[in-house]
Amino acid sequence: MQTLEQLRNGELKGAVSLKLSEGLSQFPNEIFDLADTLEKLDLSCNKLSELPADFGRLKKLKILFCSENLFTVLPEVLADCPLLDIVGFKSNIIEKVPAKALNTNIRWLILTNNKIIELPTQIGNCSRMQKLMLAGNKLKELPAELSNCNNLSLLRIAANQLSQLPKWLLNMPKLSWLAFSGNSFNIKPKINTIPLIHHEQLEMSHQLGEGASGIISKANWRVNDQRKEVAIKIFKGAVTSDGLPEDEMLTYIAAGSHHGLVKLLGQVSAHPEGKQGLVMELISHRFFNLGNPPNFVSCTRDVFDESMRLSVQQVIKIATTIASLAAQLHEKGVMHGDLYAHNILIDEDGNTLFGDFGAACFYDKIDEELSKALERIEVSAYGYLLDDLLTLCEKTVKDQPLLKLKSLRDACIGSDVKARPEFRFIANEMLKL
Q: At residue 145, what are phi and psi to the nearest 5 degrees?
């Protein structure tokens, strides 16, 4: 992070990236001194409510983040930056999105956690849009013109006020990652209870990780004078970019037992701060992340360490486990919504654990048309996972298993949603390899 003083002293001349967070209430005009080089501007965590009328002077700007400010209107001047590719205004108080503010060059738009009631029909002109983050707003419907965004791959509309999931959404050719929990049309099915584990039985050790929805820690669980090492996830309780923590917890419980899931041991009770939490088996240290989350360039596709290579056997084992688990989830009316390599842990033998239910949603299995459509959206995500696995495969010879996987991949990501196979079919085909 740089400082306003550095900017004013000319120390940042020629900078490509600039991040300022100093409680700013006005846009520093000195930023225009970087107009010839600046490509990324992060003004998050300030007190800004508007951008200057001549903001378009930043002709080379590609990425703009203004999260956690005081904007009430998405600035129209965004349209004046010809190369603007990624825009983030998360956690402001935005109520209005003017048509002009929707720069048609935008590929990734983040408006999570605002107060937006409606979107202009002109959003359908954003033909490059691949990722649209709208969770935590007050949307009552989506404009049908959004269906014109044929490159849209990831859509987050959780925690809004939508009365229904638009049918046109279910046929979008590239939509693969969809999260829609916390709307008025959502169902909350009755799920099997799991044991309650009193918070006082859990001795916290140290933090293992932190995500948008909660903190995972290592702990000792005291049971009848014995101690068992476990992992605990305590949910923060606030809406995330993907959805509601309550839905994450309930869908994970509803998923049931599967060798591709970290085993749930119980639900935390009597937390001193009233928070919800889950107790899980501790994952062996031999497991590691298969991939890394998308970056600014890849947008909706995971990225991988350069050293990552997989054998044909590992690829088959990973793909088989995920297909089997996804089939089980959809048979229970659960859409994961975030089927990605970065949510998968593997070991050297290809044993696989799938996690992070932060974007997961329940849907009505009785509605057969909706049920099949949602499953086939997720099948597309699985197809991209297969594509990643094939890219990582160390074997390039055209042996039969790889040819079969390539054929399955192509069927999964086909633009005709209704022609895609279902997960149970895919799982059965994988068992033949």
A: -65, -20
In 54-189, at which residue ranges do the beta strands (DSSP E only) sit? 63-65, 86-88, 108-110, 131-133, 154-156, 177-179
d(CA 184, CA 257): 29
pLDDT digits (tens, 9 = 90+) for 59-103: 999 999 999 999 999 999 999 999 999 999 999 999 999 999 999
> Which domains are delineated in the chain?
196-281 (3.30.200.20), 288-431 (1.10.510.10)
185 within 8 A of 163, measured Cβ to Cβ: yes
- Name, in order, each residue with C-beta under 8 angstroms of 163's C-beta and a sequence gap of 6 or more: 140, 141, 183, 184, 185
Distance CA 174, CA 172 (A): 6
pLDDT in tens, 170-207: 999 999 999 999 999 998 888 888 999 989 899 988 99
pTM: 0.95
Asked whether 21 and 67 are in contact (CB, 8 A), the reply is no
Contacts of 407 by beta carbon, 8 Å cutoff, 6+ apart: none
Q: Report the distance separating Cα 292 and Cα 177, nearest Å.
A: 16
**How confident is the model over 146-173, as pLDDT tens digits?**
999 999 999 999 999 999 999 999 999 9
Please report which confidence band the pLDDT of residue 399 belongs to, taking 50, 70 and 90 as the band edges. confident
Bridge partners, 179 (sequence order): 156
